């Protein structure tokens, strides 16, 4: 997903969102304080995305085909 659809991705990744947070993600901010809350969720999403992108892939050990093992 790209940054344009971050709200949907955030709702999938983040459990325990309050109804007001979900409404804010769906409808957008209507005041300055709501914009601050939305920005906080966006920053949280960026951190989650960053950690998900940096997860190491499963690496097959080269020792599995060791010719010296019997």
List keywords for this structure.
70 residues, mainly alpha
Structure, explained:
This protein is mostly helical. The protein has three helices and no strands.
Distance between the termini: 47 Å
Shape: rod-shaped
Number of helices: 3
SSE pattern = HHH
List the helices and strands and how they pair.
Elements: H1 6-13, H2 19-27, H3 32-53
Helix pairs in contact: 1-3
Quick synopsis:
The protein is an all-alpha fold. The protein has helices at 6-13, 19-27, 32-53.
């Amino acid at each position: 997903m790209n940054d344009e659809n971050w709200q949907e991705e955030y709702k999938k990744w983040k459990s325990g969102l309050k109804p007001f947070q979900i409404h804010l993600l769906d409808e957008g901010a209507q005041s300055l304080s709501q914009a601050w809350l939305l920005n906080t969720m966006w920053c949280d999403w960026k951190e989650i995305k960053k950690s998900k992108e940096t997860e190491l892939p499963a690496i097959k050990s080269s020792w599995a085909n060791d010719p010296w093992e019997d």
